[in-house]
């Protein structure tokens, strides 16, 4: 497209909206990072969000921008990207996040954004506007990420149970109270490293379309810094409606189980980020919590609650895509 069609005012507005989404992502997904340490009373809620937010931001210094590259260049054809597609994608993701936050549903901000991109791209160019390999890889990890979290959570819980078999429950809790702080920090690093990069990818996509950045070049440092900052600030405000669902309704957690769930989730996120795959932190930690609970027996996991969460996962991409397509049409008519 002709980059001159995008005015500076439009670019600034869309960057602000993208950072608002990033803030909401941190706000919406704060429960993923802090639910275990809050529900096990390792930290008070206000302490937990500050802990998580700090490590969200520290991810800025540790991770390559592979996930941003996947979002920016690996999901939809860069040739069709314009400000209407970015607008539609962001509105689709934000609206779906608000709806699921309001009802306390731990859905995926990541997949809401991917669904928004897909919906806006299809509205403009049909299915030929999608890069099938990138979209299918993201869809595959809807199932792979929670499965990995489940298996790693189960495995770690078995190891911890064996190692602590001769220890008193009070001594186990004392040790894992400290260790849980480290596992929560690791999970928050993974959350920041994967999720903040999705907004980086969106803004980079916009700048490329506007001719202000090159597809083969580096992401501007101000984009990276502002996205990590917005994510951290969002986490500080916390999505309290979702904490209860994640912390206690799936399975009852203690310090050792919380440590295993966070550690399993962190390992899964580090793996996906290294591959450059945008995954859902919600899916990951839900799978890990269910895996930890299943070690004590299938009845220890409230599968009905988990099933409701899975339905939210299934609906996220198509629902945000439909909203984004409608927003794209409205943008074309009135903006």
TrEMBL record:
It is found in: Membrane. It comes from Fluviibacter phosphoraccumulans. GO terms for molecular function: phosphate transmembrane transporter activity. GO terms for biological process: phosphate ion transmembrane transport. The keyword Ribonucleoprotein does not apply. InterPro entries: Phos_transporter. GO terms for cellular component: membrane. The lineage of its organism: Bacteria, Pseudomonadati, Pseudomonadota, Betaproteobacteria, Rhodocyclales. This is Inorganic phosphate transporter. Signal peptide: none annotated. Keywords: Membrane, Transmembrane, Transmembrane helix, Transport. It is a multi-pass membrane protein.
């Amino acid at each position: 497209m002709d980059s001159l069609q995008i005015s500076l005012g439009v670019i600034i507005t869309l960057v602000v909206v993208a950072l608002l989404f990033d803030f909401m992502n941190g706000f919406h997904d704060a429960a993923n990072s802090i639910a275990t340490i809050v529900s096990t009373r390792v930290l008070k809620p206000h302490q937990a969000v500050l802990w998580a937010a700090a490590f969200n931001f520290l991810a800025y210094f540790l991770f390559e921008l592979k996930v941003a590259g996947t979002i920016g260049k690996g999901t939809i054809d860069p040739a069709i990207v314009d400000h209407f597609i970015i607008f539609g994608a962001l509105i689709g993701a934000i609206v779906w996040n608000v709806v699921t936050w309001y009802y306390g549903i731990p859905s995926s901000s990541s997949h809401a954004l991917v669904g928004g991109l897909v919906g806006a791209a299809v509205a403009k160019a049909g299915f030929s506007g999608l890069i099938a390999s990138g979209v299918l890889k993201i869809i595959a990890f809807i199932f792979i990420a929670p499965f990995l979290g489940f298996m790693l959570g189960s495995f770690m819980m078995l190891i911890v149970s064996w190692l602590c078999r001769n220890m008193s429950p009070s001594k186990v809790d004392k040790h894992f109270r400290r260790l849980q702080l480290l596992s929560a920090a690791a999970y928050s690093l993974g959350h920041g490293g994967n999720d903040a990069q999705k907004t980086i990818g969106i803004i980079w996509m916009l700048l490329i379309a506007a001719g202000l950045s090159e597809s083969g070049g580096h992401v501007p440092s101000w984009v990276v810094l502002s996205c990590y900052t917005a994510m951290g600030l969002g986490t500080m405000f916390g999505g309290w409606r979702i904490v209860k669902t994640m912390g206690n309704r799936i399975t009852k957690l203690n310090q050792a189980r919380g440590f295993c769930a966070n550690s399993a989730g962190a390992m899964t996120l580090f793996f996906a980020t290294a591959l450059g795959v945008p995954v859902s932190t919600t899916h990951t930690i839900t799978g890990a919590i269910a895996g930890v609970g299943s070690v004590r027996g299938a009845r220890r996991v409230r599968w009905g609650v988990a099933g409701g969460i899975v339905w939210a996962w299934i609906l996220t991409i198509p629902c945000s895509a439909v909203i984004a397509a409608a927003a794209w049409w409205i943008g074309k008519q009135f903006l």
